[in-house]
Design a protein that fits this description.
Elements lengths: L3 E7 L7 H19 L4 E7 L4 H10 L4 H11 L3 E9 L2 E2 L1 H8 L10 E7 L8 H12 L3 E2 L4 E3 L11 H23 L14 H10 L1
Helix pairs in contact: 1-6
């Protein structure tokens, strides 16, 4: 069985980043569940901050730099996406939104997506439902039911490990849901960017149009 390609996108800006930490946990949970289902996975983790200048230039020039173009193609042909953003001003980050603005709006139709968000206060946890889900709904992606928010208390620990366990439980459930959707669908084939056709076939297509 062909391994599934899972693109993991973290829009965290700091080093280290809580968004990256959450993204890594979601990736591990998804891969573990896929393994249990007998499905292999290739996990590709990307820090969007490394592409910030290329994304900005894309808006100005209308063209993606080669490495950004490669990332866009990887995301558009992924079997699933894990997308995690920090929360700024009660919404996802500008970097997070800007990246998905340079994606073809039709390219993610039907693609399974697991959403995650991090913030400095639990007051921002609704960003998953009022900002991130609508964005991916517009892109017609298939968002898994469980989205994961992590606040400051989720990275701490208590004597009984209760809070850490609560986050781990949500992460495990979300990873299991994404893996279930991915396992049910066939692996996506990466289409060639340009396909060379005989002149007669091209002419026939023009005539038919």
């Amino acid at each position: 069985m062909k391994p599934r390609k899972i693109m993991v996108l973290s829009a965290g800006l700091g080093v280290p980043s809580s968004s990256r930490l959450l993204a890594d946990q979601l990736a591990v949970a998804t891969q573990t569940s896929l393994t249990e289902l007998g499905v292999g996975a290739e996990i590709h983790v990307v820090e969007l901050r490394d592409y910030a200048v290329d994304i900005a230039n894309n808006f100005v020039t209308g063209f993606a730099a080669p490495r950004l173009d490669d990332l866009i193609k990887d995301v558009e042909t992924a079997d699933a996406i894990i997308a995690v953003s920090p929360v700024f001003s009660a919404s996802f980050s500008g970097l997070f939104k800007s990246f998905f603005d340079v994606i073809d709006p039709k390219a993610l139709e039907g693609t399974p997506v697991l959403l995650g968000a991090t913030a400095g206060t639990d007051r921002h946890q609704m960003v998953l439902d009022y900002a991130m889900r609508p964005l991916f709904g517009y892109l017609r992606a298939r968002v898994v039911p469980t989205a994961v928010f992590a606040g400051p208390q989720d990275w701490g620990s208590t004597d009984d490990g209760r809070q850490g366990g609560m986050l781990a439980s949500r992460v495990t459930r979300a990873g299991r849901e994404l893996a279930g959707i991915v396992a049910e669908a066939p692996a996506r084939e990466k289409a060639d960017d340009m396909v060379s056709l005989p002149f007669e076939q091209l002419l026939a297509g023009i005539t038919a149009a």
